[in-house]
Amino acid sequence: MAPKKKFTKEQVIDAAFEIAKKEGMDTISIRKVAEKMGSSIAPIYVNFNEVEELKREVMKKIIELSNQLLSEENSGHPFQDIGVASLRFAREYSVLFRDLVMKQTEYLSSYDEDMGHGLVELMKGDSDLEGFSKEELMTIFFKMRVFTVGLSVMVANGLLPEEFNEEKGVELLNSTATDVITSARLNKGVVD
User: Fold this and answer.
1) Residue limits of the HTH tetR-type domain (predicted)?
2) Exposure string (b/e) for 108-132, b if CB count within 10 Å is 16 or more?
């Protein structure tokens, strides 16, 4: 009898992530992961008690990926970087993006809260946003998130004209951000 293949927890997560990336989170199953790895289901159950536990780990990997994409943006304006990273995630990982944005699942329950607070902290370092309180930054972030998610949905679903490239996306994000920030300053009674 041939010895059983041993797989690390990370290898199992990576295989499940590849399935989610192509087919969505809902398609992950123990059997499908085993097939992807070329093994029986036993090595998966060595690392995970149930598929839900594995899906939670895949969700953590997706959050790490979105944080990595954000860290790769370095315009000197964190607020812009957030939008550009969102558009990039939508373009490069459209299936995962649709899972995150268009389906409310238990795996995403803390995603919005964790990401939102972290991104608002990042926004505090943007010179364009000086003078705003945390509450005001949360409002600005929410308004831009509504716009960015809408634009990202269009990117992920191929709904934009072919000539709409990343450069035009950045221009549109910047223009809208300027409008939102100017409006917030006007509402505060402070205009540059």
Assistant:
1) 6-66
2) beeeeeebeeebbebbeebeebeeb
pLDDT, tens digit, 9 for 90 and up, residues 42-100: 999 999 999 999 999 999 999 899 889 999 998 888 888 999 999 999 999 999 999 88
In three-state secondary structure terms, 29 is: coil
Let me know whether 99 and 157 are in one domain. yes
In a domain, 67, yes or no: no
Which residue type sits at 161? P
Q: What is the pLDDT of residue 78?
A: 85
- Judge if 137 and 116 occupy the same domain: yes
Domain count, the chain: 2
Tell me the longest C-alpha to C-alpha distance in the chain. 78
What's the token pair of residue 67?
């944080």
Give the residue among 54, 63, 69 at the shortest CA–CA distance from 15: 54
Which of 43, 62, 81 lies at the terminal end of a domain, its last residue? Answer: 62
Residues 11-31: tens digit of each pLDDT: 999 999 999 999 999 999 999
Residue 79 shares a structural domain with residue 52 = no
Secondary structure tally for the chain: helices H, strands E: 9, 0
Range of the domain at 175: 72-192
Residue 188's pLDDT is what? 86
* Same structural domain, 122 and 58: no
